[in-house]
Each structure stands twice: as structure tokens, then as C-alpha cells.
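Example 3.2
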Amino acid sequence: LSWGVEPAAMIGHSVGEYVAGCLAGVFKLADAAALVARRGALVQAQPGGAMLVVRQPESEVQPLLGPDLAIAAINSPNLCVVAGPYEPISALEKDLGSRSIATKRLHTSHAFHSPMMDPVLPPFTDLLRQVEFGEPQIPYVSNVTARWITPAEARSPEYWAGHVRQTVRFADGVGEFLRDPKNLLLEVGPGQTLATLARLDPDVRDAAVV
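Structure, written as C-alpha cells:
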């Protein structure tokens, strides 16, 4: 990778909190697997959309977005992903190009974490209301709030449904986790995408074990 992000990884570090919740005792394994599968089916049933990596901080990109677009993920302090319908994404891509701002279109079928995911929320929330939640027995950082998960959040169907729509605050979450200098970052999986993204933050690269 250079400064992009694989679509599967972008989606994966959102769904990854379901794994964290399962390991922490919030979900039973069978419930977590069923939720991830149903979430995927509901998302795939939505109209197609586009995603664009932008080499700019969130504060610079947000004012340029119309109502159909959203920041889907913040992967480093100067790298975010915008999602939405094809035409608004193309218009944004052209606008950013005219400003000499680097962008990269992701090869993805849908506009994850954008307003195009709103129809997923009601049926997915209904499904989550049927799940028995436990309190987290292992602390972990939320991808939504970029803070340590609270028992109230962990047991809230609305919190878990909101993952489909809200921004994945990966960079902020890494920063929160590394407030304790004893913590280190270990990527578990076949690739190095998340470690690469973490190292894009100079504070992480210079001070943390990744």
C-alpha cells in the first residue's frame, strides 16, 4: 500500500468491533456471527455507491461535502475516506483535483458509512433488540466514539446498529489506545493494512510499537 486503503480492510475495522465485542463477552459467538452476516446482507441489498480516499484531514474535507456525502472513515490524521452516490463522488473528485488535492477511488460496490446506509438501520436495530448483551469483560476502544467502550454502549442495540452509518474513527481510536505508553499495536490477520495506517501518524510511528 502507498497511502490508500483496501476496501475490505476499511470495512473490516468497522465490523472488527463485533469481534472485539465477542471476545469481551458482549456477544455470544453465534450471535456475533449471525449479526455480521445479516448486516452484510442488508448492506448488499442497498443501491451501489462509491468511496474516495482523500489525502486531507477531516476538518478540511467536511466543508466540501454536500448532503449526499459523508466521511466514512478517518484512517490517519491526514487521510480520510468519503462515501456516497456515484455522481456526487465524481463531482467531489473533480473539485479536489482542481485544488491539487490527492485522491484515490476505492474499488468497492457500495458507499459504506454514508447516508445510503440509512435504510439498513431500522431492520438491523430490530434484529439487535433480540440479542442478549453482556457487559464487556475486556476493555476495548470504540470505532464510533474513539473512546473506551462503556457498559451502556456495549448493551445498546442503537449503538451497534449505528456502526453501519457512522464514521469509523480508526486514527482517533489508535491515539486513545496509545495514551497508555505500555500498550502496543498488533495486527492479527493476513495483511499489514491496519499497521500501515497506524504508522501514517507520526506520533504513532515515532513513539509506539506497531
